[in-house]
Predict the 3D structure of the following.
Amino acid sequence: MTPAAQFRIMGVVNVTPDSFSDGGRYIQPEKAISHGLELAAEGAAIVDIGGESTRPGALPVGAAEELRRVLPVIAGLTAAGTAERISVDTSKAQVASEALEAGATFVNDVTALRGDPEMASLVASSGADVCLMHMLAEPRTMQDDPRYEDVVSEVKAFLEERLQFAVREGVDEERILLDPGIGFGKTAAHNLELIDRLDEIVALGRPVVIGASRKSFIGRITGRQDPFDRVAGTAAVNVLAYERGARVFRVHDVAPSHDALA
Ligand code: HH2
């Protein structure tokens, strides 16, 4: 098997003014499209387009604004004929629906189908792939002293319940991916424990996604304040997660993680 067959990289393009990691860089559609194409050329099998920041403290964005940001980018990447899957990072069914019509085939929902009552049936009827992610509380408050008795078993129980919910709603189980939600209502210690015991999440039987890219716990460990300086830390986390069974890696810097995993 070639290395590329054993893992998939999900390259991130945030079409937002305020993302912690790349806010403002790709707010113009042409810049976002060419960045998406670059990530694909570097080895991304999936390109994830987001129009709303979920960083700690971020304020929600309306569906109309989110659509205004992501649709031209999805349409442009689709028109460019990339063989890569296009994913939309949204928790709103209206945004997901229009994104799927514009060419996306993957819904990355950080609320795991809890954010919009229409999302589960939309995903089920469209036949799209879906990533269900764990988050404690909501972005505005999630980093206010997050606490768990046992973070791994609580995240696992949540993902198991969400998986069962999605299947009950008619989503094809084969299309579901699970994500422990690194940094979403977690301290650095929680994130490390989740990575260390990731095999327990992998045991749920669906492909596990890891989104550690440039996140603050890497800055805490390495002393790198600037998210752009956390590329080596990100690649290291991804390799550790791969060894514990993760298979999809959501990153901003595709080439370094691709090469580290290969
Ligand atoms: N992390 C972010 C956004 N979406 N999706 C999944 N499945 N897993 C993640 O860990 C994840 C995610 C946050 O990172 P980023 O998109 O860079 O920042 P922002 O939310 O500020 O746009």
User: Anything to note?
Assistant: The mean pLDDT is 95. The pocket of 6-hydroxymethylpterin-diphosphate is lined by residues 12, 14, 16, 19-21, 50, 53-55, 89, 108, 110, 131, 133, 179, 181-182, 209, 211, 250 (CB under 6 Å). The CA atoms of residues 93 and 118 lie 6 Å apart. Strands lie at 8-14, 46-50, 85-89, 106-109, 129-133, 176-179, 209-210, 248-251.
